[in-house]
């Protein structure tokens, strides 16, 4: 492994607000410290297909406040095959890229880890996902913005819920993690959250409806984590069957949760971790994700970052229960 | 018909942002001009069930910026029966209410018109609906706010559409009227709108896809007016079948379109028409809807306001076509 | 005057949200109808200095939601001289521009009018100003967005005013016109507005303070139109002297009123008038401003548009007075 | 000291978004755990003057999304005197309040500490201030919202700065702490921040202007921390004198930084610390501030919380420097 001169940067997986701020930070901190920067388009697919472009500071001008990613993104099936990864490696050689910064979530960093060990290549990860399901960083780039978007939507839905005295089941994203559901329920003053982690309680709905009825509130909001089988539609249907007196509605927030101007928090997180990625490379780090914990930039080995058990703080359930009385 | 001393105010039908500003305006302008004001809860149902409360200026303090309606709202089935309307009339007599201000959309003003003629009662309407489907006013209370909400959501969705190079079908409200779909498509820079009024064109989708393919844009947004049969899901399914190369997604904005802080425009419209309702009563008007046309407060007879053919300006289709090239 | 083949477009004067949407509309509708489009940078200065660039549809892609103007803008002193205008004309000849679309406010359209008559050149105006002080159009591009920005700011300030029980004097823009002040006062539920047009009332402040004290509200908001001598600071000082019991604060909103994502209303207005400019040129119109009145696109001769007496509806003062009780 | 039955809650000092969410959390968690809750109006002044009201869960219904504080707030001069504090104590005795939750910033918690030790009274603090200048908690209630507000304002101002190619000096709050200035500069992509902590560098402006000129950017934004002598007006004047070629403007954001709907982050922080205050009381804690560090609720002794040297991370200056190239 020689001296690193050129750094490639790509975004991968679902887009998250703040990815552009991260691209900007990697590019500018890289150039500022003497590296060449190359932008790789369409995630690992673009690496396979050699969609690579040299970046200057101007390429990332005026993007800090934009949602989405100017590098485009994708979930690459080909990169999951040895042939795909071989092609990707050949692009890196051809483009003389010595290190790769991957901005993405759990799946993308898993891909980066595998690629890094397979080809002994320097990969640095940035936690870019709205799901907050990466271990070792207090939050992920995009999570805070998405939280604000959800809360703003629920504030709007509450106007209608109260005016019509209805129960709303609002479905939010989060994949297998309940961070978005649990915390947006607290932040929006929802009456309950139904989350994947709470598996000990066989019937979260029944528990809530009992409490809800006891309180005799006439309108309420339940936040439901997305789920193939037990999403908002499922619970709404159950309430319609079991409690026919209630006027029940469903709102599935869907893709609007991903976009939008990033919050101040996410822009700063993206800026600090982007600068941190360049520093890590300069310090000879490799195969780590850059995170922020307790207001400090930290390096988290890939295998720690992507472990599946980032725990949801169960005390938050108590917070929600006490505050929705 | 004696002198009017007490005015009742209610909201009816789907809630719309700005209804609270209208309640405030009716209440304060009424009190300011020497009337007693009584708030009637839950629309015509509350009139039937005597859910009535005297209002002072304090009752409407701090509500101008709130979405929804502090008076609650409902779609009353009982009011559609002669018995229901009789009970409603008895409440008015009992509560000594001499005139009624109804804030609502097409269905609510139709109810007000029928009630007014049946009992020779002074009813004044305010155009409170996000659908903009009332004739005689440049816009309805709530329409502008909902337009801004939709456009904000589509701006967010576009971030994802562009980052992933997808086609999004975004479904918006509007009942039988395409105002929201057509105009939000123009305002959000969408590539097409599919609206109920455009019935001459048997296949709006095919027309758009041809143009879209010709342009070879890789991502695009199509706004679809809600419809039981031909909503966003229907068109997405068709594209998936007929153009399998595209990555197609659906977003149904749903109830979040109704709520939220009203825009400046809607607060002013609500304030002016609310003051106008009191003026109309003082001038002996009855059975008119208060609107604003060309920046002037106007009185629109109920039968004109609720006629079903408020036309969508077909020139707007040309605007959208020319600007989405 | 031969057939028009190439159209130049520029923005001039203070920037206004929606200017980009207007540039996009002129460009795309122009190209769609067979014209060449050239963008002129930095207003009339850029015309004098030949800062001109051919525009394609891509040049205006993704700008509909951006505040400011990608063409930059300036207030040109040189264009006020005959020599400056001569140079500007020479640029047009050299660049083979046959018609000019000027997006700007009162001063810019006055310049366009003078230039058009001096050189017998086809100029079309679009009403781009936050001040709403152009005659013949229901509103100007940028006015609605600025109204929403002001109202959002005042909503925030009210939180503090109520929490601390203070009087706030909030100064807003508007040049010599009170549209922004008067209407934002209504929309924000302010207790009073002090506007330049209300010259009959020698002492708007005293009138308000009497009413305010009578009502014994403990916090209140007064919107003040900007003015070299009698701005918010002036009135705050007077209250401090004359009513020392009150806790008085000032907030001068300043330049943040100009920027930001344009509202749905302004994007549509910009789109319709931009398309209208191209239609007007095709119909042989010249020296008109394109406006929208009563939901219809209209052509307003420059001299009408810039006349100084666009009246503020004095009934609005009554609306504010009645609703702030 | 007997068993605690009744808990009083008050807000003090400058208002901050999220204070209402904190009042709600203290009230509901208190009631949920068997305490009586009493709301004290107008901060320590209200304690002195016995402005106290029993609170039920309904008193705090619908306030989680509201800026400001329903309990009002003030900076009490009388509470700084022994006589004032004695009266305050007498109110507590009379109202049978056994513990006091004080929501406020540095000054308010200093007052609480002194009062607690003087009368051996159980006081618990919540960090309610936009300034983020309390030690022991990752952030204070209100700071995140204010950061978002500032960044939104600067995004708007940038539209104008770029359109007109100007230098803007934007002054933000923060008292003696540069958190808001430094971090909002990073988040808004500003070219520089001028902060009180950076005292080693005698001339932050000169350093920036050199770099700025070297980069030959035509527009730029400098965030300036509020300061009696060296605020935005001071630096703008200097640039006008020393670099007369630049078009310089000033924007003082002022009080609008305080209000507005709290962000998701601040609502959660307020909810968790509010619940934490009740838990602390139940555990026999006293004279501690409840904070959140590294996603965990922590108890911080008052004397630690209010020590004056909460350090600004000087690495952030490097982040800003590298990213503004």
Folded structure, characterized:
The structure is a homotetramer of 325-residue chains. Chain A is an alpha/beta fold. The first copy, chain A, has 2 domains: 6-142 and 260-305, Rossmann fold (3-Layer(aba) Sandwich); 144-258 and 313-323, Phosphofructokinase domain (Rossmann fold, 3-Layer(aba) Sandwich). Helix content of chain A is 41%, strand content 19%. Chain A is built from 11 helices and 12 strands. Chain A has helices at residues 19-32, 43-48, 82-94, 106-119, 143-164, 179-188, 204-215, 232-242, 264-282, 302-305, 315-323, and strands at 6-11, 36-40, 52-55, 99-104, 122-129, 141-142, 167-172, 192-194, 220-225, 248-252, 288-293, 296-301. In chain A, strands 1, 2, 3, 4, 5, 6, 11 and 12 form an 8-stranded mixed sheet that branches. In chain A, β8 (192-194), α7 and β9 (220-225) form a beta-alpha-beta unit. In chain A, α1 runs parallel beside α9, α5 (143-164) packs across α6 (179-188) and α6 (179-188) packs parallel to α11. The longest helix of chain A is centred in the middle third of the chain and has 22 residues, at 143-164. The model of chain A has no long low-confidence stretch (mean pLDDT 92). Chains in contact: A-B, A-D, B-C, C-D. The interface between B and C is large, with 46 and 47 residues.
How are the SSEs placed, and which strands pair?
The structure is a homotetramer of 325-residue chains.
Chain A: E1 6-11, H1 19-32, E2 36-40, H2 43-48, E3 52-55, H3 82-94, E4 99-104, H4 106-119, E5 122-129, E6 141-142, H5 143-164, E7 167-172, H6 179-188, E8 192-194, H7 204-215, E9 220-225, H8 232-242, E10 248-252, H9 264-282, E11 288-293, E12 296-301, H10 302-305, H11 315-323
Helix pairs in contact in A: 1-9, 5-6, 6-11
